[in-house]
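pasting for the record
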Amino acid sequence: QVPLVESGGGSVQAGGSLRLSCAASGYPYSSNYMGWFRQAPGKEREGVAVIYIGGGIIGYADSVKGRFTISQDNAKNTVYLQMNSLKPEDTAMYYCAAGRGGGSWPPKLREFGYWGQGTQVTVSS
């Protein structure tokens, strides 16, 4: 079974909103941390937001602070990323990840052992 499955991506105009979902199963959701990462063509994968599964937000990328919100619903084994006031520079493939992680920002890719397949977000001007 695929441990993490993202959904909710799409194409929107600048200023619009999208809500990404990450459905987890088995061990991934018992990991200490879950996060959202994104990667644009020609750029490195970067952390967007990380949450501690036990209560608490670890952090957000400076570029999304005030616009994005990460949250979780334990009953549904799901983590969300609410994205508001989207900008063209937010265009990227967004990935959900889970792992032991760490309690500081920025997150390290090696700290996340489980990854989803990604969902594309495209923002037009």
